[in-house]
Amino acid sequence: MKNLKEKIIQADSLEKLEKIRIELFGKKGLLAVEFARLKDVPGPEKKAFAEGLNEGKAALQAAFDAQYEALKAKEIESVLQREAIDVSLYSALSAKGALHPVMETMNKIIDYFVALNFAVESGPMVEDDFHNFEALNLPKYHPARDMQDTFYFNDGGLLRTHTSPVQIRTMMATTPPIRMIAPGTVFRRDYDLTHTPMFHQVEALVVEEKGKVSFANLKSILIDFLRYMFGDVEVRFRPSFFPFTEPSAEVDISCIFCEGKGCRVCSGTGWLEVLGCGIVDPNVFKAVGYEDVSGYAFGLGVERFAMLIHKIPDLRSLFDGDIRLLEQFR
Amino acid sequence: MKVTRSWLNEFIDLSDISNDKLYETFNAIGLEVESIKLIEIPQKVVIGKILSCEKHPDADKLNVCQIDVGLGVRQIVCGAANVINAEYVAVAMIGAVLPGDFEIKHAKLRGVESEGMVCSATELGLPSLGEGIMILDESIGKLEAGKELRAYEKVADTIIELELTANRGDCLSIYGVARDLSVALDIELKSFSYKQEEKMKLGIAREAEIHTEGIMGVNLRYKLATIETKKNSFIVQLRLALVGMETQGIIGGMFAYATHATGVILRAYDSDCFRNDADKIVVRPMAIKKGITEIYGNGAPLGIVGVNQDKKCMANDETKQILFEASYINPGILVEAVFSNSLEKDDLYYKTSRGSNPDLSFGLMYLAFLMDRYSEINCYEGSLDVDTEHERIILRVNTDEICQIVGQKIETNKMVTILRHLGFEINVIGDHLITAEVPLFRHDIINIQDIAEEIVRIIGINNIQAKPLAFFEKIRLNSTSDRYKEKKSLRNRAIGVGFYENVSYVFTEKSVLERYGFSTIEERLELSNPIVEELNTLRSTILINLLNAVKRNVSYTKKSIPLFEIGTVFGSRREQKEVLSFVFSGQASNENVSNNGKPKMIDFAAFVQKIGAVIGAFELMPCTHKNDLLHPYQSADILVSGKVCGFLSKLHPNAQQSYGIPDTFFAELDFDTLLPKHMNAKPISKFQGTYKDLSVVIDKKISYYEVARVLHALASPLLRDIYPVDIYEDEKLGDKKSLTMRFFIQSMEKTLQESDIEAVMAQIMEALKKECEAELR
Question: What is the CATH architecture assignment of A101-329?
Answer without folding.
Answer: 2-Layer Sandwich (3.30)
